[in-house]
């Protein structure tokens, strides 16, 4: 743990690099600057939360900034609403042969690649044709087209929610 003044980001960056090297590639999280002794505790808790989010979302960045991950607690603040979104949007994927997980992985890779099927295929070690087939299957099962901007937002939010909630491994 490193405590430094909030206006000395270079100290935290140096510490993060040293911690990364010392742990053989472990992740380091940096909480937001907060005033006073309670602020140190709050910043530390934010950093722990960032590490937890990184684990659940399979983020592999060596240095995580809690400020960059603020959207995720917002998404999960209303857990019931997120569960409803995941069930209603992604629930139909459970009826696919092989279950929902391969299709969920496909959506994650597709969104992470900025909607580039070729890049998603490379990440998944699949052919472009296989990824295109999966995306079409997702569209047919859910009625939401991953390539359509309006559907994409809903699908991507549901995929993030699924990862945060541990779905489909954990039943909602």
What does this structure look like?
The chain is mainly alpha-helical. The protein is 62% helix and 3% strand. The protein has a two-stranded parallel ribbon. Strand 1, helix 2 and strand 2 form a beta-alpha-beta unit. The protein is elongated and about 55 Å long. The mean pLDDT is 90.
Task: Provide the fold topology.
Blueprint: H1 9-22, E1 28-30, H2 36-57, E2 63-65, H3 71-76, H4 79-90, H5 101-112, H6 117-124, H7 128-142, H8 149-165
Helix pairs in contact: 4-8, 5-6, 5-8, 6-7
What are the main properties of this structure?
single chain; two-stranded parallel ribbon; elongated; mainly alpha; 8 helices; 172 residues
In a nutshell, what does this entry contain?
The protein has 172 residues and is mainly alpha-helical. 62% of the residues lie in helices and 3% in strands.
| Rg (C-alpha, Å) | 19 Å
Task: Count all strands and give the number.
Answer: 2
- Note the main sheet: 2 strands, parallel
Helix content percent band: 55-70%
Task: Decide which structural class fits the backbone.
Answer: mainly alpha
Can you tell me the overall shape? elongated
* Number of helical regions: 8
How much beta, percentage-wise? under 5%
């Amino acid at each position: 743990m490193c405590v430094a003044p909030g206006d000395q980001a270079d100290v935290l960056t140096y510490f993060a690099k040293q911690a990364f090297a010392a742990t053989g590639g472990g992740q380091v999280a940096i909480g937001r600057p907060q005033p006073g002794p309670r602020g140190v505790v709050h910043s530390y808790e934010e950093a722990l939360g960032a590490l937890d989010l990184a684990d659940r979302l399979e983020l592999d960045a060596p240095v995580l900034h809690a400020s960059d991950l603020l959207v995720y607690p917002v998404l999960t603040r209303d857990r019931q609403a997120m569960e409803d979104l995941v069930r209603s949007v992604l629930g139909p994927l459970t009826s696919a042969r092989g279950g929902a997980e391969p299709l969920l992985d496909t959506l994650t890779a597709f969104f992470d690649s900025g909607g580039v099927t070729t890049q998603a295929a490379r990440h998944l070690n699949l052919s472009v044709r296989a990824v295109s087939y999966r995306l079409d299957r997702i569209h047919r099962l859910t009625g939401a087209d991953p390539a359509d901007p309006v559907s994409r937002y809903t699908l991507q939010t549901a995929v993030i929610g699924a990862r945060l909630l541990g779905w489909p491994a954990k039943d909602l």
